[in-house]
Every structure is written in structure tokens, then in C-alpha cells.
Amino acid sequence: MTTREAVEQLKAFVARLVSDRVRDPRGWNEWKRDAANERFMAQCLGYKREKGMPSVTSLIRPFFHPELPLIGLNYTEVAHVTLHAFADGWTPAIRLCRGIVFDRRQTLVAFPFPKFFNVGEHAETKTLPKGPFEVMVKEDGHLAIIFQYRGRIIATTRGSFQSRSAVIANELLADKQSAWADIFPAGMTVLAEFIHPETEVILDYAGKVEFCLLAAYRKRTLTDLDYAELTKVGDSLGLRTVERYQFATIAELEAFVKRPEFENKEGFVVRWPDRRVKYKCAGYVGKMIQEKLNPRYVMLRVVEGKLEEKFADLPFEVRDDADKIVATLMGVTEKTTKKEQLAYLYGLVPAQDCTQYHKTVCQKFRKHLETQGKLKVA
Known about the structure:
- By secondary structure, this protein is of the alpha+beta class.
- It is built from 15 helices and 15 strands.
- The termini are far apart.
């Protein structure tokens, strides 16, 4: 399925939502319960459910503008943590559901980055092209998807027109409406890292507030500008264009990102003509994992078989914390019934964090241990 074909399939999906008068999350939750709708959705997304794969209705979530007739599509956390395990899980259409926006007449309004992966994370990032490449710094705010609709310049984040980041971004864009009205690139989606004290993840931007220009896509051809063209757009809009970094070889880049010290740098995005690949700095990953290190994160890595891969090159203190969590999790092997085992795993997080998603992860972890012969079941 080509990118153009995938967009057309998503238009068909949006058309069905519109014809069935789905206008809000409540309507969506009702719509997706119908088996016929689920089959239609799978057809549109090119999704063939194999054993162990989640329902297609758990992979994509539409989001709706509160005033304008706009519908965005975004993949869910379920897609993020499960589809890597299946060779054909990330279909071309699902990969486009990363904040893509249509109006209710199925006109493509905003075309953001299709899903791309960390090096080694997906088949296309394990064998890399041999030709020329360019490297851009990976910023650490929130992606702002900026587009013009009905003469108005609007920003959305990847899954909401009303997220806190989207609200702040649109407040800042309000001051640019008149200045950008005639110079905003026609027929394009502008992608910018929105950097603000409320969007900081790990890096310290010292209170900076800005839109850093990352890319711009032509909606007609579904292609993005090269760096020289992008810089011209940035100069026109008064935006800093993301820094381009110089590495002579991929091996040189790989050596740089393996340095364990945290240098207030997230990593890099490497771009070849046919793909983008993310490289994250080990120091950043270590700090990020340390901040989100919890039983659920470790259980997911164990089930994926990637615990050693994820933690092998991290600072000792992070690895030590992870090992302690693993030891705690393995306390489940002392329980003798399935009910006791799940109750033990559920109880490792505060009650307010024991969501249905967390329980699902616990169940997969327990099943994994049982398959490995590590559980005693009465």
C-alpha cells in the first residue's frame, strides 16, 4: 500500500465515521463496539489480525475539534507497545495515524510525520541504506502540527486539539495570525517542536518558549521539503530551523550516542531519501528510563525479551534500580494460584495507577512466566 493509497483508505474510514454521525469520544466508543464497524476499520487500515494481536479498535483513536469540522487520527498506547512484535502490525495506514487531520468532507487538512522508529526497533531500521544521509538534532518538547484551515492557523498535538500543549501553542499562534496570514506556506503542514516549560520532558531548555521548525509536508504530493527549502520557510516565519549535525559516517554517529554521560541532548534523526530513523543518546535514555522506571515498564521489557538490550549500556544506578524491580516482580513466583499471582502484581502499584491497561500488562507478564515454566500453579 502506497502512502497515497493509505491516505485514501483513511478518508474512507473518516467518511464512515461522518455518515454514522460520530462526533465525540462517546460516539466513538459506541461505534467501535459494532463488529461490522470493526471489520470495516480493519479493512481501511489494512490490518490483518493474527494470533496474539489486539483488536484494531484498540489501536487507533479519532479526536475531534471542539468548534471546527475536523477529525484527527492517532495511534494508541496499545499500538505503541504491541505492534512491534508483529512483522505486519504497523501497516502503512496505521503509521499515518500520528496526528493526521481531515475535515468532515474527507479533505486532507494536516499531514504530519508518518510513524518512524528507533534504530534496531523495526525491520526497516535494522538494515540501513548505504547512500548519503543527513542528521538533525532531536528536540525534546512536544510535536506541534500546524496548518491553515478556513484562513485560520491552528496547532494540534499528536492526539488532541485540546491537550494542554495544544491550548498553549494556539494561544501563542494567536499573536502570529495576522503576520503569518499571507506568508504561511500554502498547501503545507508545518511540523515544529513546541518548547515550553510545560512541555519539557528530560532536557533543560532554561525556560525557553519557541516553535523549532522540524519539517514541512506538501499535502498535494505527501512529500516533505529538503533542508534548504525548510530553512527558507523557517526564515520566512521567523522560526529557528532544527540544527543539522555533521557526522562523516553512521559508525561515528553510533559511537557518539553510546556515550553514557547525560549531555542535555536527546539524540538525532537520520534521514535517507526513503526513511527516517531515530538515534537516542545513552545518557538521555538512562535518565528517561530512570524517571519512568516502574514495574509496568519492566514487565513490558521482560515480555518483549528486551530487558537486557534496554539496560545493558545504562549507568549503574539505573540498572541497579531495574534489577531491584525485577527481583520484586519475581516475588510472584512464590504465589501458587493464578488469583494470588495477579493480585500480587496488581498490588505493586498504588491503587489509582492500577488501570485496566496496567492489569493487562500484569496478565501478559504472568502468562509469559507461566510459558517459561517459572510459575507454580496449584
